[in-house]
Amino acid sequence: MLPSMAIDHYDKRILAELQANGRISNQELADRIGLSPSPCLRRVRALEDSGIISGYRALLNARALGLDLIAFISIAMDRHTPERFANFDGAVATWPEVLECSLITGRDADYQLKVLVRDMDAYQDLLLRKITRIEGVTGVHSSFVLRKRSVKYV
Description:
Arc Repressor Mutant, subunit A, elongated, Alpha-Beta Plaits, alpha+beta, single chain
């Protein structure tokens, strides 16, 4: 378990700046939040060590890569056993189209997948050749993203 950490207004500003630009220099970050570089760096390291900052990544432009369709797929399983879930998790973990896989409650589904594919033909291929062939899948409901907006913590 990660240690808990109290977040103050400087930490919130650091998080907002790093979400906007993870490659910002420590000097620029310190200038923007109103701290000198040394305490700023100590705070960033503390946020990393606590697990609040879990990593830094490059954000890719999906459209520039020819990936235009995002779908959320709700999946129902026939049995709720560790073996069924492990089999499902293992299968979808190998598919590059799957951005997120969540085991969920409160609906008629057991899993929620977020997938990114080229187009409807690629989605159909994923659905018919992969998802519905996993042992135990009994139902699939798809929703397609019309528009998205990023949400940031602050």
